[in-house]
DNA sequence: TTTACAAACTGGAGCGCTCTAGATTACCGT
DNA sequence: ACGGTAATCTAGAGCGCTCCAGTTTGTAAA
């Protein structure tokens, strides 16, 4: 920067302003500076800028796993808003078993991002709250009491799914559940409540977040004596696993067994998949998370913000009336 | 850090060493320091560390798109190696149309990553070479002359695919191609060469990197008068698009029309998809990219490294003998 | 011409760390 | 007891930028 300043015959400060597009630099001088920079092959040093600067323009984004489309959808939403506002995004990726979550969040913290937008964190509410105590954090698609949350009503969504199945005549409906943990219990509860209300027997089978495991666990259920006529999966990845298990058995989704997912991640939209699912409007969740993050930065001391939204049912080919066969 | 030093009764330098787990700090002192840090709620500042430090432990990773499993696979491979070596990873995500690639790479450059590992860049060879001139760069799954590349022989892979189809009796085989651009022409050439060698007529239909577009373009082909009995897609995403187009038309992949993809991204493995594809061993590509990056850091002036590997065919359910019907 | 005020520009302090070179302490054998 | 080596520890410079508090220049009103 020193060199560029000398080359352009101005002070370092002015070079800084010019590169940031800040006001207070005449058009002619700005042009002269950028030209000099180009001649000297100068690239501003983001790192130094972030150390010296006041901050406020870097968002950290935590994503559980890159193999799950949902998180890509959320990211798209965050990016749309953040980018329009000139914010930088720093990514941290977790693992499907959640074992790296703490480390990944710590990385973001140590990179001094101004706010963390976290989706798919598998830490306990208490742990999330703890990091949120040190750096502003907005939780996406999960309600963490006391922490900014952009959230979709999972209890209601699960109800929506079950009522759809019941409407189709299904009575033996199993819930293929995520590992029980703080913040991810409401879909399960929604299922149980909906089943009880209908006077049906609930049956919960716990699986993991991995598609392959879900396929395995679904397989066991499908092969059991009292196999269900419908399975409600805790998310789309798991539902795809169910579809896998069906395919292996030569069974047809929607005809032989109905399967319904959750998230409406973009993969479920594909005609080849045609998964009936509960839409949490993930991209919009991402957008709202970014907006919430900005609000938080503007007012660091404000009360925790909770943005709730209602999911909706998207009916595709993987659900259908209960057939005579099973 | 100053505060922690005072609290622990040592110098700032020693606090630095203690937090980095560097040698030259007695066990007792280290413990005392970390304890003091905990008491004061201290978190090291990565940004300041990177500004002051010598560098060499931060990798930048460019991924084309989070919706394509291939890139997640590559990332997994990179992460495995990088993490084992204590390297930090900084991510930059492009867009499916490649329009943001230059900006994303610039971001990495400005974050002063020590080396960029790039997969799915849609810039020209010249442009890639230019950034590679300013910051060490290793290109993954694409051969950029003059730039470190970890690459799989696409020409050979395409041949493998076509020969498999020909072996099954197919003669009308269309190639659903990616937009022609530097570095992504070899699958197309491999297809053409293989077809010519077999005395067959080549038919190339260009599509994009988006699954939905591929479905559309495949649909047009499938509906045409001289519809093919097999389609070879430039990658798995496009192949999934073909599967979508088939599903919409009530056609069965493998029975009515054979479809073969490219990449063996993890989604193609799922039993519900069962896509025959060419395996580029993406995770291994990622691992080798990380290793190459380290080599480059160790010897900045060495000749460009090219790591080639041979793809292999993975036969699943989406290909089969040409039927009587079509 | 003088005064006033905005626009354009500058110098220097400081962000929180790492690194180098040197000062201190501990420990060993003789 | 003593030099010598290794293990600890410390002071201070500097990484490349932004920010603050000015100083200078330009321009319009008096």
What does this protein look like?
2 copies of one chain form a homodimer. With 326 residues, chain A is of the alpha/beta class. Chain A has 3 domains: 43 residues, lambda repressor-like DNA-binding domains (434 Repressor (Amino-terminal Domain)); 123 residues, Rossmann fold, CATH 3.40.50.2300; 127 residues, Response regulator (Rossmann fold). Helix content of chain A is 44%, strand content 17%. Chain A is built from 13 helices and 12 strands. The first copy, chain A, has a 6-stranded parallel sheet with strand order 2-1-3-4-5-11, sandwiched between helices. A 6-stranded mixed sheet of chain A has the order 7-6-8-9-10-12, sandwiched between helices. The relative contact order of chain A is 0.13. At the A-B interface, helix 4, helix 5, strand 2, helix 6 and helix 10 of A face helix 4, helix 5, strand 2, helix 6 and helix 10 of B. The structure holds a DNA duplex (30 and 30 nucleotides).
CATH structural fold name of the largest domain in chain A: Rossmann fold
Of all protein chain pairs, which has the greatest interface, and how many residues does each chain bring to it? A-B, 45 and 45 residues
Helix-residue proportion of chain A: 40-55%
Strand order, largest beta sheet of chain A: 2-1-3-4-5-11
Number of separate domains of chain A? 3
Radius of gyration of chain A: 24 Å
> Could you tell me the strand content of chain A as a percent range?
15-25%
Regions with little confidence, pLDDT below 50 for 5+ residues of chain A:
none
Q: What is the CATH top level name of the largest domain in chain A?
A: Alpha Beta
């Amino acid at each position: 920067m020193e060199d560029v300043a000398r080359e352009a015959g101005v002070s370092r400060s002015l070079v800084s302003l010019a590169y940031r597009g800040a006001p207070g630099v005449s058009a002619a001088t700005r042009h002269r500076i950028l030209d000099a920079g180009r001649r000297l092959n100068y690239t501003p040093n983001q790192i130094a800028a972030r150390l010296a600067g006041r901050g406020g323009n870097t968002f950290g984004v935590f994503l559980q796993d890159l193999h799950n489309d949902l998180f890509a959808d959320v990211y798209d939403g965050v990016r749309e808003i953040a980018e329009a506002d000139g914010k930088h995004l720093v990514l941290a990726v977790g693992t499907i078993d959640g074992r790296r979550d703490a480390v990944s969040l710590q990385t973001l913290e140590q990179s001094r991002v101004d706010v963390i937008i976290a989706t798919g964190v598998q830490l306990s509410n208490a742990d999330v709250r703890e990091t949120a105590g040190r750096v502003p954090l907005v939780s996406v698609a999960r309600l963490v009491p006391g922490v900014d949350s952009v959230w979709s009503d999972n209890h209601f969504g699960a109800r929506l799914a079950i009522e759809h199945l019941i409407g189709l005549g299904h009575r033996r409906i199993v819930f293929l559940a995520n590992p029980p943990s703080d913040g991810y219990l409401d879909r399960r509860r929604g299922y149980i409540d909906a089943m009880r209300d209908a006077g049906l027997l609930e049956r919960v089978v716990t699986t993991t977040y991995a598609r392959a495991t879900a396929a395995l666990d679904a397989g066991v259920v499908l092969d059991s004596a009292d196999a269900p006529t419908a399975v409600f999966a805790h998310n789309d990845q798991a539902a795809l696993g169910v579809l896998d298990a069906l395919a292996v058995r030569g069974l047809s989704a929607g005809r032989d067994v109905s399967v319904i997912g959750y998230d409406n991640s973009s993969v479920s939209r594909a005609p080849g998949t045609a998964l009936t699912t509960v839409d949490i409007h993930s991209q919009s969740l991402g957008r709202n998370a970014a907006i919430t993050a900005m609000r938080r930065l503007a007012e660091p001391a404000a009360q925790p913000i909770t943005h709730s939204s209602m999911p909706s049912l998207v009916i595709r080919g993987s659900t259908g009336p209960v057939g005579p066969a099973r």
